[in-house]
Design brief:
Radius of gyration: 22 Å
GO molecular function: mannose-6-phosphate isomerase activity; zinc ion binding
Oligomer: single chain
Helix content: 25-40%
Strand content: 25-35%
Pfam families: PMI_typeI_cat (PF20511)
Function: Involved in the synthesis of the GDP-mannose and dolichol-phosphate-mannose required for a number of critical mannosyl transfer reactions.
Bound molecules: zinc ion
Shape: globular
InterPro entries: Man6P_Isoase-1, Mannose-6-P_Isomerase, Pmannose_isomerase-type1_CS, PMI_typeI_cat, RmlC-like_jellyroll, RmlC_Cupin_sf
Pathway: Nucleotide-sugar biosynthesis; GDP-alpha-D-mannose biosynthesis; alpha-D-mannose 1-phosphate from D-fructose 6-phosphate: step 1/2
Structural class: alpha+beta
Number of strands: 20
Length: 431
Amino acid sequence: MAARLTKNASEEGFKVNPKEPYAELWMGTHPTNPTSLRSSPDTLLSSHLTQHPELLGTSASKFRPPFDGAKGSGTEDQTTGHVPFLFKVLTCKQALPLQIHPNKDLAKKLHEEDPEKYPDVNHKPEIAVCLSGSFLGFASFRPYAQIVQFLTTIPEIKALSSSALQSSIETFISNPTGDTLRPVWEEFLKLSDNEDSVKAFTERVKKEREDAFEGLVGEGFSLKEKGNMVKAVVNSGHYYPGDGGLFSTLFFLNLVELKKGEGMYVGADGPHAWLDGEIVELMAISDNVLNVGFTPDSDKDDPSLVAKTVTCAPKTPSELILKSTEFSKSSTGKTTVYSTPFEEFSILRIEGDDSLKAFDGPGVAVITSGQWVISENDGEAKSVSASAEDTGSVWFIGAGTESKWERKSVEGEVWMAFYDADAKKDEVGKK
Ligand SMILES: [Zn+2]
């Protein structure tokens, strides 16, 4: 889908090569891959917003990341004119690296040490909403009792030779807390991308399927959940045979399945790895990432650094799921808002004709299906512009602008990332 949308979202002349995989479509002002105006392809959105700061509203600039001296794909400085979020459409067939995004303190430290590798100092909490029939991903630590079950029943763990690993497991099992979990996970992160135990485990799961997990019982271990575990093992075994990332995800993190329209969040410092499916992903404006699994050893970040920073608080999948409700600024009820726990952004899903009251902040919308006519009314000048838009078009809605959405096809869907300083508290994060 990322490729299909990109065909329309990109500048003229961009051609999709059907033999190449395409993973991500970026929308927003991040200097790594900034959006430019369709009406004026040489002008970056950030330059336009620098010229017209009123389009960002009264307080979106308080999230302005200090991109001092940052240059984008052009040569323009991009220190101002930023929307507070980075919005992506992501297509994933092969597991993406196991990763965490550093918090603000660590991001600053890493940036000072290695500005090339860690381009910005912002934190990066994120949300993902499923666009395909289903989506599978690992996120946040499982309840400790479930981790203990893995560590005591999976025979291949006993075959791992590191004595530091085995003794940290014993300590955790006798007293499962965040503090005793951290060293265990760190030892698992140190496993290489070519482990015999991982290969043996993968072969056994391929043969025994759900029965390979018969020692696991209770919450988190239904037959369906075990079926997803088999899928995760087969997927990682195919793309990353022997990669220790399989153990440091499967035995420790929730394996969450989203159905179309369902969303989940990953807090700053939350571990996650996406396996399969299509999502819209929305995060604070940052490109900092620490990768520790499903990636060659030579590309891995320091496991000790990651283990030190990671949030070890356990969650259940239902705690990670985002609630969605009818949006309070919708006039027809055809738009739903996902309640995110972060202050920089939230996301809307528009499914039919609607008109949305103005925000005190910017919005970036992408048409993921159908044909739409979009018109705007910025109130003051009473100027209305209408435009027929096809799948993949990306639309910027400035602060103070009412937007009208008319669906011209039988089905259709639009996703909008936005920030609104005067949003209802349960619609955009903590205040
Ligand atoms: Zn991520």
